[in-house]
């Protein structure tokens, strides 16, 4: 059975630190995969380009996977074909329907792996490198329990006993800093994510008005369609969040 080693690169500090650590150890890497949701922070896209340039000296490059529709298109143009929501787009993700993970990351990656298997015309076991830190060993254990004969998982940062803070400063030591985005947020996940911590939402509202306007656009679009669950958060709209989190006496002093 042929082994294929895949680095799952989200574009954030942990997966980047994992990639650099693997390169330093001369670990086997067949593919470095980035799933583009269409709603990453601009700094993340800049970072991906910078990493791609860095990888040239290793004779490697990032494979960018794109879903059929990006996040915004799934919430504006896409029409569901089944269920009571037929002909309607997706709503903001919720704990009951976290559709974004499947549509934007899982399914494109599964298709990518299927194409590899079909091309090789052989039995394949995929060794997936995942950027969980030592802080996330419980998540790693849960993922490890899902292993099959064809899907295995490795956690290089946990093996190196590296935590999130160490991962960030390890990237800084390599001159990768995301324009110091991590000074303001804890995780560089999609800016449209309703699961974001209050710190991240407050940052977007106060200092990234263009990104916040895109979230408000999506909310207004759902509302105009007469959808009951139109709010950005299950219990709060963007307007309500602004009232709570906007700094009344502080202008948008950070510009990007």
Broad shape: globular
Mean pLDDT: 95
The spatial strand order of the largest sheet comes to 3-2-1-4-5
- CATH homologous superfamily - what is it? HUPs
- What about the largest sheet? 5 strands, parallel
CATH architecture group name: 3-Layer(aba) Sandwich
Quaternary structure of the protein: single chain
Q: Tell me the number of strands.
A: 5
Distance, first to last CA: 48 Å
What share of the residues lie within helices?
40-55%
Q: Return the CATH class.
A: Alpha Beta
Structural class: alpha/beta
Number of domains: 1
Put simply, the count of helices is: 10
β-sheet strand percentage: 5-15%
Low-pLDDT stretches: 250-256
* Radius of gyration, CA atoms, in whole angstroms: 20 Å
**CATH fold-level name:** Rossmann fold
The succession of helices and strands, N to C, reads EHEHEHHEHEHHHHH
What labels describe this entry?
10% strand, 256 residues, Rossmann fold, 43% helix, 5-stranded parallel beta sheet, alpha/beta
